[in-house]
Design brief:
The protein is an alpha+beta fold. It has three helices and six strands, in the order αββαββββα. Strand 3 and strand 4 form a beta hairpin.
């Protein structure tokens, strides 16, 4: 995503994919719609000094064959690699061929942790 290729960055999303944020629900019917939302959100983060991100997979579980729940911590960092904030998300993924595609994203603290991102 840091290279600006938002289509590549959203290739792991199913169509449609639903995003639950503390500010509301969004559904994207195509990969292009997902990429547009990601580009807009990334531009907003950059306006507040975010220059990169790191992720850590915290937990993966499966209750039904072909589906995964994955908890991820996203650390948003400044130009020096110092963490500005950490956002937490849970992904519901469906098996598709040899891999998995994201069907649902629950963004747990995007607005609560950093109110300045409230309009992202």
């Amino acid at each position: 995503m840091l290279d600006g290729d938002f289509m590549r960055a959203t290739a792991w999303c199913d169509s449609p994919v639903t995003l639950l944020r503390p500010t509301g629900v969004a559904s994207f019917n195509t990969q292009a719609e997902s990429a547009q939302d990601l580009a807009r959100t990334w531009a907003h983060y950059q306006a507040y000094g975010v220059r990169g991100m790191r992720f850590e997979i915290l937990h993966v579980s499966s209750y039904v064959q072909g589906f995964l729940l994955c908890d991820v911590a996203w650390s948003l960092v400044d130009g020096n690699g110092i963490t500005i904030t950490t956002l937490y998300s849970t992904y519901t993924m469906r098996q598709e061929g040899e891999g998995y595609k994201v069907m649902l994203v629950v963004s747990h603290n995007e607005v609560l942790e950093r109110p300045l991102y409230a309009d992202a």
